[in-house]
Amino acid sequence: METQMAKKVILVTGGSGLVGNGIRIASERDPRDDEQFIFLSSKDADLTDKESTRKVFEKHQPTHVIHLAAKVGGLYGNMKANLEFFRINMAINDNVLSLAKEFKVEKVVSCLSTCIFPDKTTYPIDETMVHNGPPHTSNYGYSYAKRMIDVMNKGYNQQHGCKFTSVIPTNVFGPYDNFNLEESHVIPGLVHKLHVCTQENKPFTVWGTGKARRQFIYSVDLARLFLWVMRSYDEPDPIILSVAEEDEISIKEAAEAVARAYGFTGEWIYDTTRSDGQFKKTACNNKLRKYLPDFKFTPFDEAIKETCDWFSKNYPQNVRL
Ligand code: GFB
User: Fold this and answer.
1) pLDDT reading at 161 higher than 90
2) In this protein, which residues make up the domain named NAD-dependent epimerase/dehydratase (predicted)?
3) Quick one: pLDDT at residue 320?
4) Which of 26, 102, 111, 227 has the fewest Cβ atoms within 10 angstroms?
């Protein structure tokens, strides 16, 4: 007699955003019969409110949760609202994890970020360093709230045997991002500006000196890794999801890749009245490579081209501006 495979009901909070859409794309490209995804958007529920969050769990009865929902933003968005980033994310994370425990969810994978690591540190950064000192002043609100997810994961795991874990991506980019110039991260900001500069033949402005350095991961690659973590990674401790250290590039090099994608040959301006933020946050992906030695990341220029093409096709009506 054939045994009925227990269906995984996977609730993706923040399911309509950059990484959420990446997971939708990756799960459609690699479907499993025993998996059903529910992509939750902020329109469906206010996760800062416990009762609104409880209704989500009552309605969907998830067996697994991929927890992406958060108040996120780029350097300039964080710098002007650290308190809100802390309080809103603390409320969302406490509601989602406490209800996941109450509804006996089998596994929760939460999303952190390499900006949470200490600002004054040795490089490369690895998973053991999460709590080793204050994060960069530009985003302490977001960083401390995300660190507290790791603290809660440990508590739920030790006291209640909950399989709650987390991943730590580097700077993510791709389709369905927030392209609002003041609130966005660097790559969506550059894509938005270069689209307009190319259309209107205007000079292109990079904020800051362009010397800061970052490791960038394409949302669809991150999503493939998220599915692997949900399906196969069994540690409560976090794991960095990133390209290698040697793939770290300067903001100038990132801007050059976007300019290549648009064939922009106009004038460049560096607005050094704008902050560079953290100079670098070089992360080591040895733990990931121990598990997945052959994982192939999408070549950076190819991922940038796909992101620019998506933006040009959807601008302005279907883009978050
Ligand atoms: O992605 P981003 O805003 O945040 O990158 P962080 C900021 C870097 O890009 C700085 C330069 O060095 C900026 O000077 N930059 C150049 C620009 N042009 C632009 C532009 O048009 N827009 C933006 N936004 N930057 C964030 C954290 O830090 O990283 C968040 O604040 C989160 O909490 C995120 O963790 C992943 O990489 O500096």
Assistant:
1) yes
2) 10-239
3) 96
4) 102
Positions of E strands within 157-251: 163-169, 171-173, 204-207, 213-214, 216-218, 239-241, 249-250
Cβ of 189 below 6 Å from ligand 1: yes
Q: Which two tokens stand for residue 243?
A: 């390209």
| Cross-strand bridge partners of residue 239 | 167
* Ligand 1 pocket member 19 (CB < 6 A): no
* Ligand 1: residue whose CA is nearest its atom 21: 189
pLDDT digits (tens, 9 = 90+) for 216-248: 999 999 999 999 999 999 999 999 999 999 999
Q: Which own/partner pairs from 26-31 qualify as long-range (CB within 8 Å, at least 24 positions apart)?
A: 26/220, 26/223, 26/224, 26/226, 26/227, 27/223, 27/227, 30/224, 30/227
The Cα–Cα gap between 18 and 277 comes to 22
Asked whether 278 and 143 are in contact (CB, 8 A), the reply is no
> In terms of pTM, does the model score above 0.85?
yes
pLDDT band at 34 (very low <50, low <70, confident <90, very high): very high
SS3 103: coil
Is any ligand 1 atom within 6 A of the Cβ of residue 76?
Answer: yes
CA-wise closest residue to 187 among 317, 60, 305, 42: 305
Nearest-10 Cα torsion for 163, 169, 175, 178: 100
Residues marked as catalytic? 142
Phi, psi (degrees; rounded to nearest 5) at 303: -65, -40
Written as one letter, the residue type at 307 is: T
What's the one-letter identity of residue 265? T
